[in-house]
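We modelled the chain as a single entity of 280 amino acids. Its sequence is:
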Amino acid sequence: MSRGILYIATGEEHLDRAIGSAEITSRSVDVPISIVTHREVEQNGVFDEVIVDEEPQRDFVDKPRNLPKTPYSKTLFLDADAYVISDINELWELLDYYDMAMAVDPNEGVLRFENKGDKLSEELPESLPEFNTGVILFNKSIIESLCQEWVDNYSDSVLNDQSAFRKTLLNMDLDFMSLSNNYNTFIGFPTQLCGEAKIVHDFFDYRDEVENIPEIVNASDDIRMLYFNRRKLHAINSTCGKITQYVGNSLLSVKRAKNIVEDEGFKTLVSKFKRKFSSS
């Protein structure tokens, strides 16, 4: 059963980014990489297959139009600004149990609630999350029918392809799973991570700094927050993060903290916290 990575990029700017992303991805994967684009691409050792879209729309709709062209039975689709930075072999096994997997968009609050005028989004159940379609793991057996409905749901009243994708998921009999942030690590929005980031999303305009991104996002595998400020990517692994982990793991519950204060005093509680964090 074949498996591989697919990029879709129509337009020179998107093609340029896809080539750069694929170059980085190729260092971490042992599967072929293909691209659907608007023209032939000179072979540079990155793409195993170039598939030409003869009628590109240069729009969001190019994604669902071209996903069925994947040459693989198991496909990891990546946006032009998404790239793999670590081994992802464990992902393929997921497709033995589910038809599709993707992560919830960290910017869904803006996309769904602040951007007014997306009529389709307003019609859907509030409890249905907005998945980010920049990283999609899928079986080819289901993609043609899904993409046809996805295209049908897309219209001028839809602000982005993800609103149409939400409706498509709601209407189709599909087994799908949500991926963690580790497999779609946004660096343009505050993102919490725990463990190793495997797929990074968003180049923005700092191509010169992209080589340093894996080192920054995976400087630690503890609970941490990524945020982008003043054209720099930052990773916070602070005492606040340790407190969250400490309390979340019930190492010192609120009830026990209360008992310590009542029996031994507040200074003892503070002393226990300090000893815990100094040994972490």
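As a brief sanity check on the tokenised model: DSSP finds eleven helices and 13 strands in the chain. The first strand starts at residue 3 and ends at 9.
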